[in-house]
Amino acid sequence: MLTLREAEAWANLHGTVVQTQRMAVPTNLDATGIRPAIDAWRLGLDALRELVQRAELSGASLVPIGSGWSLSRALAVDGTGWLVDTKHLKEVPFVGLRAEHFHVGTGIDPGHLVFAQSGNTVARMHDALAGLGLSLPTSGASCGQTLAGAISTGTHGAAIAYGGLADMVRGVSMVLTGGEHVWIEPSNRRVTSDAWPTHLGARAVRDDDAFHSAVVSFGAMGLVHGYLLEVEPMFRIQRYYRTASLRTLKGGIRRLGRTLLLDLPAKLLPGGAAAVHHVDVGIDPNDPDQCVLSIGYSAGPAPGYVPVIKPAAQPKVGDDAIIDITRLIALVGPLSNARVRKEVRKLLDERTSTGEDEPAAALCELFPQIRFPTGGHSTEIGVDVDDWPRALDVVLKAIGGGTVPGIMSVRFVRGSEHLLTITRFPVTCTIELPTVNSPRTLRMFGRIWRGLHEAGITHTLHWGQACGFNDAPVEVMYGRDAVRRWRAAREGLLGPVGMKIFRNRLRGESGLEMK
Asked: What ranges in 418-479 are assigned the alpha helix state H?
């Protein structure tokens, strides 16, 4: 069922995007408001198809907003159109593919393939999978994003042998121009048989560039109905927090080919260097010498483990810098620079203050859904690990000795094949700087982006956070060939009419128009 509402005021979670637009709400309910017991997901699909057809007739654009988690203008309508509230599309109709739907010879266990609608939040997927003895392979830290929001903007975790959330996608169910339903997957690593798109009622598009473009496309390539995800058996992670000097970390974290090398003192690696699962560094941008290193080790498969999943929690100090800044805003408010610096340091020190290491826990326990205070903003850049010490120096110089209420997070992630993802490098270092939402913050972000470009450091940006392309064109960030292929894939999937429907302000501001 599709509900269309008149123009109303809407703001994203942190208030960085505020607009008054019409609202479209697709659901899995029938005309009487009842969810059918069988194939309810098909009603949500039909609602998306109807919406696209209406938009085409009226010349309106469509911008999916999910749970409003993103900070960027990917959530802002370009021209006139509808905001598409997709968070009611939260069916998980298929856990495991039947033999007739599976493409034999992939090396993947069909029982680990899960089809989920795009409006499921990451937290809800954690919950649904835990009851089946399964787990997402990686996760962002706060988990309130919808799948489509997290995946299409390039959200990543800190697992060094894994990429971002987009790398668990094996196929995409998407609605394109004219309300056409397509099933998109790569041709070189397909996992479904021809019977699968037929079962969905979709046209199969098996093309590498179409797939790697559509997965990370920040709402500019159609309406995502659902994803086929490759998940893993339940596992646990053991995390340790250690204080370390920035100089030691800069000299001891590098890469060899596609492998992250950790040449750090033994006291920082309680389980050794070879078995590290994830790495995260918390840095006080006001006094960066002493950092907090979070090292995670896989505690192995845990088939009988039953995670304790709690309802949305208040922010606490953890691996997500956004959580830290929003908690800080709630704590200090408009206080003096000295007090802000004191509270930032206090937040960072809390990670190691107990003197005790955390017990091993499942991914869904380590990264639950968080209920945020509002008022923060953030930018996140990606660089090759070989460039991370120099890039960090540029970021700290751009801050310029000012007081920044926030904790910088540095993470290390395996590279991805998706064309416009932040993790484009063989091993990517991401540097996230959250702080308050203010004109001063945006000027600081501009100095950071400009400084990286002037220093000749190739970098990318997280599409779900503050993005700037005035100094470093998108072709410089992601490579001329990758941008050309993304544009061509978008044009091939949508055609001229669809490219007018599926657009948002970020796409235009980034310079991704066809050339």
From this structure: 439-454, 474-478
Question: What's the pLDDT tens digit per position in 197-248?
Answer: 999 999 999 999 999 999 999 999 999 999 999 999 999 999 899 999 999 9
State which fold the 94-233 domain adopts.
3.30.465
CB 219 within 8 A of CB 74: yes
From edge to edge, which strands make up the β-sheet containing 18-26? 2-11, 18-26, 81-84, 61-64
pLDDT digits (tens, 9 = 90+) for 331-388: 555 556 777 777 777 777 777 765 567 788 898 888 776 655 566 789 999 999 999 9
Name the token pair of 263: 């040449």
Residues in the chain with pLDDT < 70?
A: 310-336, 353-356, 369-375, 514-515
Domain coordinates in residue numbering, the chain: 94-233, 236-365+374-475
Which residue's structure tokens are 């809390």? 350
How high is the pLDDT of residue 460? 97
DSSP 199-217: HHT-EEEE-HHHHHHHHS-
Q: Which residues contact 347 (CB under 8 A, 6 or more apart)?
A: 317, 324, 327, 328, 407
CA 271/CA 372 separation, integer angstroms: 33
Could you say which of 3.40.30.10, 1.10.510.10, 3.40.462.10, 3.30.870.10 is the CATH number of the domain covering 236-365+374-475? 3.40.462.10
SS (H, E, C) 75-107: HCECCCEEEECCCCCCCCCEECCCHHHECCCCC
